[in-house]
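Regression test case RT-17, inverse folding.

Input:
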């Protein structure tokens, strides 16, 4: 039987081609001075960024107007630090957490997608629920709560998960009435880990989203939407209800995990809106050697809707001061109630 390829490997050749294309941008023709670096950065984003039309529709982004706005702030007498500030301010106009400008002394970033909202997660409450008797299976921490509901805490998609780990966790939860998967504060990482975990909750090949590829330098130059399917794992799978807990700090691969799980019938998303980050990132360099990362391939949910600005939960629940004072996590308690019912 043909071995299933993950999303990452399925598009591996495309990514290599895209990286090479990005690396071949003619920034070498720009001089290594403030104006040259500004022009190179603006051009890289103009030709390769993937959300111009969407963000123009959402909040009126006009990349040419951005050029005009920031060009006047650049001059040949400015310091390196001043140039870095101007370039970071320009990139922030994209409102994209996947867009970063990196130097040896700082990383420019746009984190308003999480910093401008309530956290809806408490380390102190997490320690109360986890106690000291929880189990650890690679990147997963897990235990059975006192109402016979399994609880999994997955903090980062950078943390690897083995198939054996997942078999052991699901076997341990065999008699539980349901599972809570808490991915709050999961800022993403390796998409294959998100895929591997989600495959334990699907029982037939299921459409979970779409992807496009950039095909040219124009803002509308994209391939057709390509359907993305989640294949069921050939190992132990879960057949009961699941609640996935989210907050604004759920981003990138964790956002995609939320999107995949949202497409499944026995799964409810509980908590706050996710942070988003649905563009596959690529990187290039400026004449002065600074590295710029940007979203290059847009991904959509099963209904062909953008998730770049996050996913709305099925049940929007916020932590309350009253519950926190009692040592209760309002979002976990809401999920437990749903699973008990």
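Golden output:
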């Amino acid at each position: 039987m043909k071995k299933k390829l993950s999303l990452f490997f399925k598009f591996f050749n495309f990514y290599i081609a895209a990286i090479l294309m990005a690396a071949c941008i003619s920034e070498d023709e720009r001089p290594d001075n403030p104006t040259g670096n500004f022009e190179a950065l603006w051009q890289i984003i103009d030709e390769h960024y993937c959300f111009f039309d969407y963000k123009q529709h959402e909040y009126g982004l006009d990349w040419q107007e951005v050029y005009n706005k920031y060009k006047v702030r650049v001059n040949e007498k400015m310091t390196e630090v001043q140039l870095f500030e101007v370039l970071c301010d320009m990139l922030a106009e994209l409102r994209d957490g996947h867009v970063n400008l990196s130097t040896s002394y700082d990383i420019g970033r746009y984190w308003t997608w999480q910093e401008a909202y309530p956290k809806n997660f408490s380390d102190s409450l997490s320690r109360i629920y986890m106690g000291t008797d929880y189990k650890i299976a690679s990147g997963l921490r897990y235990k059975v709560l006192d109402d016979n509901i399994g609880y999994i805490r997955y903090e980062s998609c950078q943390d690897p998960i083995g198939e054996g780990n997942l078999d052991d966790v699901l076997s341990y939860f065999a008699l539980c009435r349901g599972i809570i998967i808490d991915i709050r504060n999961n800022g993403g990482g390796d998409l294959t880990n998100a895929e591997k975990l989600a495959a334990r909750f699907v029982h037939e090949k299921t459409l979970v989203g779409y992807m496009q590829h950039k095909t040219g330098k124009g803002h509308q130059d994209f391939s057709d939407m390509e359907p993305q399917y989640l294949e069921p794992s050939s190992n132990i799978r879960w057949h009961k209800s699941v609640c996935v807990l989210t907050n604004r700090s759920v981003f990138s691969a964790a956002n995609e995990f939320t999107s995949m799980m949202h497409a499944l019938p026995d799964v409810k998303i509980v908590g706050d809106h996710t942070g988003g980050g649905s563009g596959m990132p690529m990187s290039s360099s400026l004449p002065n050697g600074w590295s710029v990362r940007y979203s290059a391939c847009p991904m959509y949910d099963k209904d062909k809707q953008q998730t770049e600005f996050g996913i709305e939960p099925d049940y929007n629940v916020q932590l309350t001061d009253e519950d926190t004072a009692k040592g209760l996590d309002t979002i976990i308690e809401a999920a437990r109630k749903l699973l008990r019912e």
